[in-house]
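quick one: S-adenosylmethionine bound model?
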Amino acid sequence: MLITVVTLFPEMFPGPLTYSLLGKKLGTLWNLKIVNIRDFSDNIWHKVDDTPYGGGAGMVLKPNIVHDSLSYALSLYNGSNPTIVYMTPRGQVFNSNIAKKIVNNEGIIILCGRYEGIDQRVIDFWKTNHNLVEISIGDYVLFGGEIPAMVLIETCLRFIPGIMHNSESVMDESFAIDLLEYPQYTKPAIWCGNSVPSVLLSGNHLEIAKWRTEQSKQITKALRPDLWKKYLELHSDNGG
Ligand code: SAM
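yep, here:
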């Protein structure tokens, strides 16, 4: 799986992505290439942006420079069809289901904006001709798309077979079955006078599974009524 990040700040990568399981599998199960937008500048000052038509604060990344950067990134895939993503606060708000759709054996290209964003024409061109998708990591504005890109990469890679030690972990986690995860405990069995729930010490796997499902439901209902409502809609046939 080749992931290419198109950015003005190549030195930010791989950064946090070199740690833990992702880092260990970098170079084998997944690869990362970085395309520096500035390398495609059309002037001797290496400028990549200009003032917005119509006035207003800030600068806008120029369409020709972003287009050339994306075209170069796409050429790294030798004719295959990676998913192309533009990180933007205007996009669909990212979640686990979107991550599963973005994961693509043919790879992913992620475009990171900066300043006031990117000239709309290049976004429209790549939407029409290469199915570019716009993804937001939440309803707030960051300075650039690099941290959102890292969030997307880390989330997507968890769905690649072989990245996690135990593939059941992904299936068990929050959101996997439209519920938040049940509480987790480890040794010691008693800490500060508080015991681990006795069912977890029983060795009865059926009872443990039932207890965990019930906990997931109660926690989701209490903490995320929006998710709980969705869960009830999707699972109405088994009474929630
Ligand atoms: N003027 C833009 C607006 O109001 O929507 C914000 C531009 S922001 C300062 C610069 C870049 O950061 C964006 O082009 C985008 O790539 C990235 N960015 C900022 N917030 C983001 C978010 N919540 N999700 C994804 N990308 C984001």
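The chain is about 35% helix and 15% strand.
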